[in-house]
Structure formats: C-alpha cells, structure tokens
Design a protein that fits this description.
The chain has about 400 residues and is mostly helical. It has one domain. It is built from 20 helices and no strands. Helix 4 runs parallel beside helix 16. The longest helix has about 40 residues, at about 1-40. It is globular.
C-alpha cells in the first residue's frame, strides 16, 4: 500500500516536472517581453485615458491591459485603482480581463504546451469576451450600482497584490519604445518587472503544475471522456464552455498557471471552446470572487460573477463556431503531458539560453534595489510613497 502511494505521488510529480520543463523557456521569454512592454508604458495616465465605455475607450483599455500583463490578483487590484481614480467601471473591467487574457506569455505557453490554434483562439476569443461583458455591464450596472461600487471601492479594503498594482516603475521621458527600453534606466526597469512578474505568479504556476500532474497521473481517461460527453459530439460542444469555467472556479489556479491544467483537460476530451472558456475563467476563481466581495460588496460581486461567467461561456461558443467553420480545431489531442525526461533537444537548448538570460536579469535586479521593490509589493502605503531613485517614472495608481 505504501509503495503504491509513493509510486502514485512520483508519477504526479514526474508529470508536473515534465510540463514545467517544457514551458520554462517560454515563461522566461514571456516575462522578458512583458517586462520590456511594462517598462515603457506608464500606469499613471490610465484613469484619465478611460473616462467612458465608448468603443474607442474599450479598445484602449484592452491595449493598456495587454501591455500591463498582470497576474490575476494584481489585475483586479489595478482595475479597482483605475475605477477609484475616476476611470469608467466598464472600461476598468475590460482592462482587467485584457491584462490576464491578452498577454504575450500566455500565448507563448499555449503554443508550446498545446498548439498554436489555442494561442490564436485566445487572442480572437479574448476581444469577443470583452465586448460581450461590456455590453452586459451596460445593461446591469445602473448609475446607482456604479455609485454603490465606487463607495465600497473607496473603503480601501485589501485584497492581494495591492502593492504591485500601486507601483509604477516605467521609464519616463520621450522617445520611441526602443529608445526608452535602451535608455540608461531601461534595463533596470525591465529586470524589476521581470522578477516581479515571476514573484506575482510563481505560486499559481507551481500549483497549476502540481494539480495538472496529479490529474494526469491519477484520473483515468475514461472519467474525462464520460465527464466531457466525448461520445456525444454535439453534447460535448454544448457542455464544454459551460463546464470549463466551473472547473476553473474550484481549481484556485489563475494566470498562466492554468495552461498546464488546460492541457490535461484537452487531452481528456473537453471541447475546443471548453478549453478557451476555462482559460478565460482565471478571474472568477474562488479567492478572486472573495476579493470582488471585499472591493465592491456582495451585490456587485454576484453581478460581476454572473456577467463574467456568461461572457466566458458565450466567447467559448463563438470560438468553437468560428474555428470549426475555418477547420482550425486541432484533430489530435497530444498536448505535452508526459512523464519526466530530459534529452538534448530544442527545449533543453532554449532552457539553457533563456536560463542564462534570467541570471542576467536577476543580477541586475539584485544590484539595483530590487529587493526593496519586492517589500513594497506587499505594502500599498509604502508603494504609494516610494521613489525609484534611478530615473523611473513613479506616477502611482494607488490602491
């Protein structure tokens, strides 16, 4: 009995390690690119740039969200900050979804672990979901409810990643994106965003890998096939987007950490649209639903939960229909969920190259005041008062 337990645990850890090894270089690349973008895009003007929920503003909110590339908790905290500073509520919600679902690192990892079609689906389905939730929020968020949400938001109840949302370490000044990235303060800002990106989501990544490894090792395919109605093609397509977000709600995994679990679900037989809806649902996991309650009160939290869920489901159906019509739904279910093994292939080579890059980033981070920034991430008050001291902009959007 004991030996069987040890074997089962070893298999689960082996699956987790193998998936982690496959996506390691993609994570480093994604966080590097994210650091570059965040280093040259200031948070300071976001509230003033999002005064309403017109199509132009929602498009801008989505672009700013994608550029901010936040973990789910930081995205929720920053959206509240934008709203408190006078930004439009619906635009803040659009920003929140874009900052976790339209980001570079998510697309890269999806392509590596599952297939490029899922990356394309993420960037097509994401805007569809944002449009749907804005249209629904316009109907259900009356002036009275928006006023109620603002009143509760101004009570400053704490969620998670408040300090991360408050700080703005972007490079100030004029010039092109490349010029700012290569300025004397550019590499420092990039290294700080790189490390803080890892700090923000490492627990979600590890949790996602462990849960995915356990599911891959311990749950037989017969269960998944029955659960996802694999033997009923139409039923599977109808049920997938409904079930996907519900699985995410109870998984406690968000940000890029839910990609390994999406790979397990895809191999298990969930529909294409179901995987996409599951990926979108990182902003309705149970801990974040509790943060909505703290930020906006029970009534608004329940409204947001319902609107978000419906938008995710409908976006999943839309992606299923669009990609099915274009014959872009993958026919094979061979996501990289396998036992641990390391061989000399392109993955190992890329992990070595990008591992060296991460060492450079870490060195820059620790030699330019980075640890102090980490302390401020957990203290909004300190983040609001902080000055980077190396030429960085500090137009804080305080929580």
């Amino acid at each position: 009995m004991f030996q069987e337990i040890v074997t089962a645990v070893f298999q689960a850890i082996s699956f987790s390690f193998a998936m982690g090894w496959q996506i390691l270089w993609a994570l480093i690349l994604g966080f590097t690119l994210s650091g570059v973008v965040q280093a040259v895009v200031s948070k300071g003007e976001m509230s003033r740039l999002l005064p309403d929920d017109s199509p132009r503003t929602i498009l801008l909110a989505s672009a700013l969200g994608a550029a901010s590339s936040s973990c789910s908790y930081a995205a929720v905290a920053l959206a509240r900050s934008i709203f408190k500073k006078g930004g439009n509520f619906n635009a803040a919600m659009a920003f929140q979804f874009a900052s976790t679902n339209l980001v570079l690192e998510l697309g890269i990892i999806l392509a590596v672990l599952i297939s490029w079609q899922f990356t394309l689906a993420e960037f097509i389905g994401g805007p569809i979901m944002i449009v749907l939730l804005v249209l629904m929020l316009r109907r259900v968020m009356s002036r009275e409810r928006v006023a109620e949400a603002r009143r509760r938001a101004e009570e400053n109840r704490q969620g998670r990643m408040e300090g991360h949302a408050a700080m703005d370490m972007s490079v100030g000044g004029q010039g092109s994106v490349l010029a700012r990235a290569l300025s004397p303060t550019g590499p420092t800002a990039i290294s700080h965003f790189f490390v803080m990106g890892w700090v923000s989501v490492w627990s979600d990544i590890v949790l996602g890998l462990l849960i995915s490894g356990a599911l891959a090792a311990w749950v037989p395919n017969t269960f998944w096939k029955a659960f996802f109605l694999v033997n009923h093609p139409l039923g599977a397509k109808l049920a997938g987007p409904l079930i996907g977000p519900l699985v995410a709600v109870v998984s406690f995994v968000c940000s890029v950490g839910n990609v390994p679990m999406a790979a397990v679900l895809w191999n298990g037989g969930i529909s294409f649209g179901g995987v996409v809806a599951f990926l979108f649902a990182d902003l309705i996991i149970l801990p974040i639903l509790n943060i909505y309650r703290k930020y906006y009160g029970w009534r608004i939290a329940l409204i947001l939960t319902a609107v978000f869920y419906v938008a995710m489901v409908l976006a999943g159906y839309a992606v299923e229909l669009i990609f099915g019509a274009l014959h872009l739904v993958p026919r094979q279910r061979h996501a990289l969920v396998e036992m641990a093994h390391i061989s000399w292939d392109y993955t190992t080579f890329l992990n070595i190259v990008f591992g060296a890059l991460s060492v450079v980033m870490l060195y820059r981070f620790f030699t330019t005041g980075g640890p102090q920034m980490l302390i401020m991430m957990s203290s909004p008050a300190n983040a609001d008062r902080s000055t980077h001291g190396r030429g960085h902009s500090h137009d804080n959007v305080s929580s």
